[in-house]
């Protein structure tokens, strides 16, 4: 999604040529071809499928919505298994019509109902806490501490945490909750926070453009033992409008200098 | 600020006629006339000065900025005393050029340096935690829990907390931290969170228009013993564009129904 203008074949070719070792796969990019073909495309380019993004969206207003969410989450786990991704990143969802406790109950129950299927296909469920500015309609899970409380209930064999600096950088309890999470952190995303931020969704910065201490948060995450791939996840209309070859080269520079 | 198109004389007349018992005074509204005259205007209309809004903005890049912030905070305390407001609301500030720990150190030290003057004029310093989406450039104090940690250090004789639902509604630790705060909560602001929110600053809703559980948060706050005035604080270009007499009537309705 960071290089949104490129389709999967283009991204595979470009990343591979630039020495990028893996990719977070957004489901939209898998549409229109057999999953086995996407898997082979990654393999042929020596690229690792780091994660499948995204499912979740558990809160519901009626039984039909509940069932649709469940079906889509099962489908996402199957897709991840098919393309060789070890985890599905969960954007947990929120409905402004429901109270926060009700949203959070739907989310916890929704994830719990998927654990058996996750185990059967060998794919982990990775809860991504989203920034509190998304608590109304995108996710009622908003801090690493809250993920820890949820995973205390859910167990951590098939449920982990995707830590994205954009969502968690401001948290006064970040260091202690990352430490508490320990091995639960199974994904780590970097980008930056722009001042001013002009759009709630698509005005992220490249690492070094904003105020997030990417390197400091990386140290916290790696001190838990995390040694997985670090994903650059920048949603930016500004960067999407640029020449994507030059942008990829800037991403790699920014990663080396600021992560 | 909720009825921004009105100046202080107009607001005093309208609020008084509508039976509103008090007002949060923004400093801009006091400019252009002697403070004693503003104080008498409030008294003549039977209006209580609930708070003076705002000072703070402690983080600095150089000594000149540090001194200017200090001077302005002293001035705000004096103004509050002069108009009879028992507290100054602090927007603590943040500089994207500084690390979060550095911003937070400047804030704690800045508040500490004002306590003697606050005591001498009999005006409390009220820390308002701001929503995490403002952590880059408006306030590096973002949760009630963080305020509690700061006040553990600063003492609570002259330092309290202004709890505004807009900033804190999403917090999974809200109930426990409000309970921990107890008598430290000396101001309570209500409004609502719109879905979608179209602007970072001026797209708040009137209570009942959005997803915040104002009544539930009021119960939490009042269970600490808080019995002060509840302030409606809505920044909204949409509502500012309306007829303000009709709007004031809607505010009172919304307050009765949703707070």
From TrEMBL, chains A, B:
Residues 15-244 form the Xylose isomerase-like TIM barrel domain. Keywords: Isomerase. InterPro entries: IolE/XylAMocC-like, Xyl_isomerase-like_sf, Xyl_isomerase-like_TIM-brl. GO terms for molecular function: isomerase activity. This is Sugar phosphate isomerase/epimerase. SUPFAM superfamilies: Xylose isomerase-like. It comes from Coraliomargarita sinensis.
